[in-house]
Design a protein that fits this description.
Layout (H helix, E strand, L loop, with lengths): L2 E6 L3 H11 L6 E7 L3 H10 L5 E2 L2 H7 L4 E4 L3 H13 L3 E4 L7 H13 L5 E3 L7 H11 L6 E8 L6 H6 L6 H4 L3 H4 L2 H11 L4 E7 L10 E8 L3 E8 L7 E7 L2 E6 L2 E7 L3 H7 L11 E6 L2 H10 L1 H13 L12 H17 L3 E2 L4 H48 L1
Parallel strand pairs: 1-2, 1-4, 2-3, 4-5, 5-6, 7-10
Antiparallel strand pairs: 7-11, 8-9, 8-15, 9-10, 11-12, 12-13, 13-14
The structure holds nicotinamide-adenine-dinucleotide.
Length: 408
């Protein structure tokens, strides 16, 4: 038996999910309906997939169609509300990242999911399908590199130009998506950080906007504090050409270096405290008892690139519904990254280090205030734009009159 799936929101990402289901890239699953509030988007879909029923309202769709599971790919603020409704209607749910904009709302969604433990509920943390990330998690949790002493993540290869920001109404605004590069692109890395290393105790961050006309950040610098003065530094931006993707995790007994699609693992026979205890040499030596190997499962990585990480995560979701696989990205795992997003914004607004998680109620209030500030900025900009436009009109009138005089 196959799982009957509907996609809610068939913009850029939802279209890809629908296509993957429709072209049978996801075994044991069928696309049975799609929904989008935009009539033009639906029209485009109807032309391509004539037999798939389309709906403007997801409530109507759930009422009328025989659906086992839904994939939600709407803008961020819709995620929590639609997830809760679908769970109420006894549907398995895979929601796009982030599961919600605030931890305050995420708590409600998780409570709702806990009421129906028979349902499979998941978040689209597609980077978890990468075998390199899975191996890193395994090495850290098995203690293969010993106690963690530091970590650094540089992620600057999510380039977004002004043209990207100009295309979509909800993008890069607190009112539209609850933030900018942090909540949209960098949220994948925040999930990996907490998945592999666990949640930090506190964070201090600096966010700013560079070279783009947007009201949110596209440049992020954070220091996360873990117990025993262990720090993790995160550098992320979406404005750098030919950026970097590098994650280093150093432990007392080894080190993991992930650079783009390659992972190098170093393991030491003795831990650094043991070496330090025994050695009489003050500096300048390299422990010879080091094992080093590269982990680069080319074949699996090629398969993932071919199908796409998102399709691989949907396969896992479908197999979990069929009781064939363990779920890679359960809904409750969506909370960690949302708490980190909230704490990073709270720290940058306050200009100081904050605990993780921050108070969800206070964050919700602060975000609403931020949205009001943003509205005022955008209103001013609209006036600027209108003034510019009015000047242009006067200018062209003057040229028109000048042309008429010259013609005479
Ligand atoms: N996992 C990934 O790698 C990845 C990549 C890109 C985007 N995303 C996520 O996918 C989601 C959608 O992003 P996108 O780029 O496709 O945006 P988009 O704007 O292109 O598409 C969103 C669609 O949802 C529709 N919509 C809005 N409210 C709706 C509602 N209540 N019911 C039904 N449809 C509704 C809109 O009309 C639009 O067509 C976001 O959460 C985004 O963060 C994930």
């Amino acid at each position: 038996m196959y799982v009957k799936v509907a996609v809610i929101g068939i913009g850029r990402m939802g279209k890809i999910h629908a296509r993957n289901l429709r072209t049978n890239r996801i075994p044991n699953a069928r696309l049975v309906a799609v929904c989008d509030i935009d009539k033009h988007v639906l029209e485009g879909h109807k032309k391509k997939y004539k037999k798939i029923p389309t709906y403007i309202s997801y409530k109507d769709m759930l009422e009328k169609e025989d659906i086992d599971a839904v994939i939600i790919a709407t803008p961020h603020y819709e995620h929590g509300k639609i997830t809760q409704y679908c769970i109420e209607k006894d549907k398995h749910v895979l929601v796009e990242k982030p599961m919600t904009v605030t931890a305050y709302e995420a708590d409600f969604v998780i409570k709702k999911a806990n009421e129906k433990p028979n349902l499979v509920t998941a978040v689209m943390w597609n980077q978890r399908t990468n075998p390199i990330h899975q191996k890193a998690k395994e090495l850290v949790s098995s203690g293969a590199i010993g106690k963690i002493i530091r970590a650094n993540y540089i992620i600057t290869n999510w380039y977004r130009s002004q043209a990207y920001y100009n295309q979509g109404g909800w993008r890069a605004s607190f009112s539209g998506e609850g933030g900018g590069a942090l909540i949209n692109q960098c949220v994948h890395q925040l999930d990996l950080l907490q998945w592999i290393l666990g949640m930090p105790k506190a964070v201090e961050s600096k966010l700013c906007t560079k070279g783009r006309d947007i009201t949110t950040e596209n440049d992020i610098a954070c220091i996360f504090t873990y117990p025993d003065n262990v720090y993790l530094q995160l550098t992320a931006n979406t404005h750098e050409l030919r950026g970097t993707n590098r994650f280093e995790i150093a432990g007392e007994k080894g080190r993991i270096v992930i650079s783009d699609t390659k992972m190098t693992v170093y393991t030491f026979k003795k831990s650094e405290p043991e070496v330090n205890e025994e050695t009489k040499q003050g500096y300048g030596f390299v422990t010879r008892k080091t094992k080093r190997y590269n982990y680069m499962p080319r074949f699996i990585l090629r398969l993932i690139w071919y199908f796409g990480e998102q399709a691989c995560l949907i396969k896992n979701f479908i197999n979990a519904i069929r009781g064939k696989e363990k779920l890679l990205s359960p809904l409750k795992d969506g909370l960690g990254a949302v708490q980190l997003v909230n704490a990073i914004y709270a720290s940058s607004w306050k200009g100081e280090k904050v605990p993780v998680p921050v108070d969800p109620v206070k964050y919700d209030e602060r975000l609403n205030a931020k949205i009001e500030e943003e509205k005022a900025i955008l209103k001013k900009d609209t006036k600027k734009h209108d003034d510019k436009h009015a000047n242009k009109e006067i200018e062209s009138k003057i040229h028109e009159i000048a042309d008429q005089i010259l013609e005479k």
